[in-house]
Structures are given as C-alpha cells and as structure tokens.
Amino acid sequence: MFRAMRLRPALIASLLLCVCAAGCGDTKNTTVQVKRAERPAALRTGLRVGVVGPLRVRVEGAVPERGRLSDVAGDALVLVTAGRVDPAALAASAEAHPSSHFALVGAPTDGDKRPNVLGLVLNEREAAELGGVVAGLVAGDQGGKEARVAWVGPEERALASFFARGAQDVRPRTTVLRAWSRDDPAACKEAALGAIGRGAVAIMAHGGSCAAAAIAGAHQQNVVGLRVADFELPEVAAESAVRDAVAGVYRGGEDIVFDAASGAIGVRRLDPRVPPDLAVRARTAAQDLAEGRRPSGR
C-alpha cells in the first residue's frame, strides 16, 4: 500500500509547471509567453499651433489647437485662413502678442507688414489655368466642334487670360467667353446663364458669393461649374510654415507665393459633373504644371 502524502502548495505549483511544460528535466523546453498589458498612450506633446478656419494640419512635432483667434492667439504659431478674420483684428492680435507668430493662409498681408505676420499666398493664376484645363477637357468631351467655355464675374483680365490659356492648351479650338458682371450674386448668376445660353459647357468664376451664385446657375442647367479655390491646396503652404516653426524658424513681415511646383496648386475638388476619365486627365495636367510642363490633358 502507498501511504498518502501531503504535498505542500509550493510543490504542487512546481509539479503543475512541469506538466504544462510537457515534462520537467527534458531537453526540449517550451517557452510560455505572457502578453503584457499595453501602456496607455502618451499625452501628445509638441509645438502648439493655433488653427483658425477649416485647415487640416499634420506635421510631426506640432499639436494643432483649433479655435477662434482670441482662443489661440498666444500659441507659438497661429494659422489663420484668409477671409475668416478681419485684417484689422489680425493686426491687433499680432500687436497684442508680439512673441506669437501669425500666418495668413491664402492671401497677402496687403501692405500691413508686421514682423510676426506672414502671408502665405497661393498662385491664383496657375489655379485659373488648371481650371481652364478642366473646362477645355469638358468642352472636348461635350462641346463638339463649336466648344465654348466661359469665365464669369468681375473683370479680372489676368485670371481670365490664364483660364483661356489652360482651356486652349488641351483643346486649341476652344472658344473662351468672358462674361463680365458686377461683383454681385444675382449679376454673376445672370452672367453665367447668359454664357450658357451662348453655348458654354463649363464656366469658371473667381470666388466668394459671386462664384457660388454662378455655379448654382450652371448646375441648374446641368453645366460644369468651377472656382479658383477648387485648384488650391492651402494645407501645403500652411504645413510648410509649421515645419519651419517646429525647426525653430519663424518668418514675418513678408508674403511668400506658393505655386504648382510647391504642390500648392492641384486638383482639390471637382464638380461631380466632370466624368471620371476627365478627372484623371485633369490630375495628370496638374502634375505637368508641377513639373514645369505645359499641360496636355492626355
């Protein structure tokens, strides 16, 4: 007979480990991996960057803080979307916070130069040119031999000329109408409808309420409507300023122009009436501009 043995708890634990490991003393050892609990994510740290407006900023080493100008004016760098803050309010904030730096994204500082205010200007002429490329592609697709497109709104001859240049680069026979109007929504919409009545299959306007009204009129007639902002990428300019700030470099008292070569001019959004195959060709044309080539739209 075997005498019952009282095993100590420590010995029981040792025997159990031997069984789980498929045999104690054997030359084949089994490694038991224990999954450790993950550490909680560290709090975000970095340069505080105030953001006023719809900009999306993603730069390593920077922590965006979105809010009103009064909420973020004390941050090291404050990005202000053009049109979101009155220029006088921006100047007053810069004066009240001399140790902060401000970047006006999408517009020049208009002569009110301050050492802690930087203007990040987008090349609107190239944006108008790329819009013309899209209009020319649409004309080639829909307009037949008498393809027509139109620039609508106040008389801005330089922008209209670049628009025409883009349209005729991709389709030399394209007729470009200049539908000048007052800077008034009702007048802009009427000008757009008039151009469409003359055969325009795509229209483009500069921006603001005039462009919104012109495009609304175009859409009523199922015609493609474009605006300059459709071809501007302000985040590219904004992130450039943020990267400089993270590196300890702050600029002010000047305006810096960002063009297609910088990546700030490209296809941001397109009217859904633009067919997918033309959208692909438009992006190819944007790449041509970025690389210093005339856009072919092929």
Structure description:
It is a single chain. With 298 residues, this protein is α/β, with parallel strands linked by helices. It contains nine helices and ten strands. The protein has helices spanning 9-20, 69-72, 87-96, 124-142, 157-170, 185-197, 208-220, 234-246, 276-290; strands at residues 47-52, 62-66, 77-81, 101-105, 117-122, 148-153, 175-180, 200-205, 224-227, 254-258. A six-stranded parallel β-sheet has the order 2-1-3-4-5-10. Strands 7-6-8-9 form a four-stranded parallel β-sheet, with helices on both faces. Helix 7 (208-220) links the parallel strand 8 (200-205) and strand 9 (224-227). Helix 4 (124-142) packs across helix 5. The chain is elongated and about 60 Å long. The N and C termini lie far apart (96 Å). Mean pLDDT is 87; it is low at 1-43.
